[in-house]
UniProtKB/TrEMBL annotation:
Residues 50-328 form the Polysaccharide pyruvyl transferase domain. InterPro entries: Polysacch_pyruvyl_Trfase. This is Polysaccharide pyruvyl transferase family protein. GO terms for molecular function: transferase activity. It comes from the Bacteria. Keywords: Transferase.
Amino acid sequence: MRPRILVTGIPGHYTRLANGAQGLSVSYSERQKQPETKEEFLQELRNISNTGNYLIGEGALRAIAPHAKQVPFWHLYNCSQNGVGLDEFNANFDICVFTCANLLRKGLSADAEAEVLGKLKMPIVMLGIGLQNRRDLENSLPEGTKRLLDVLKEREHYFLTRGFETAGFLKDQGFSYVQPTGCPSIYLMPHNMRASLKKLPNVPVGKARTIFSGYLGANHDCIVDAAALAPEGSRPQYVIQDEFLHFDMNVEANGDGRVYDSASGTMLGELSYPGTERLKTPFDVRTFFDTNQWRAWASSMDFNFGRRFHGSIIAMQAAVPSLMVAVDDRMREMLGYTGLPAIDAVEVDKAENRAEFVADHLAGLNASELVDRYSDRERTFRSALREIGIGQ
């Protein structure tokens, strides 16, 4: 008999429409949101914290057996807090898949996760768990995260990690089933992912319509990228993930009281962030709360040069050739495991001619080897899900 699968944790974009839940049932609005005022836009961004996270939940749910039921984590947490309890979930499910990201980090105490998973009396699959910074693991983790790991030691557990470093840490903690598989977002649209890899060596750097992503408001890195790689006379394209929440990037409403156009994903009004004076032509800035809209727009572009992991993955899902810049331990772990094409931030930042450096790197890639490596990682991921009993 197939296991009854509960999926929770990081959601896909579809959960934006959830307007209530009772027991095992979740209700969804038929009205698409249009968060066009500044207040509405920022609240929509706060709801997910980082729009790139939508890819994690979406990738997980598409990889798991289709009879799995997704329940928003906030509903499980509310049931745990308000006295309703989780007995109904324990009676109706055999295994829980908890979709996660860089959960092992200094700035996050997983108190809510520890409480909910501690009350679910079933095996737990931690899908996509990873680290943010290696030093976080060398020092003491937050108390809530320690409690979560203690909870998982007390029952049958499965850790499918983002890479080798996280797997090594968890094995050192005494966990038995630990396997690196990468982020589930990587395997959402494998045919397009392979198509993007095949195109990479032939990208006309400096002429290709290029998507940029990074940390506007925190540093000038992607501004320098755009100045070097965007076609002459074009308006460079930039996609937001969380910059308005965490960095020195701001937007003010236009004369109609709008900061955002829901139809195109374009930011309106007056944008401000440090470094704007370094660009001949300002960025055309977009935000996407629907991954289908994001992919559809990305598919019209020729190249992605990204300092954001999921901002680059969604371009690859649209078959757009992408080169990532590894900026931190989190990205280095994921890229090191998957073998997806990347250059280290230190190397690209010190290049005298950034466009030539990128073009030479792309020209030296072996597309067949990239495709073979990706296909091998995809097989490992799907085999692990089937081994646990939750795969298709």
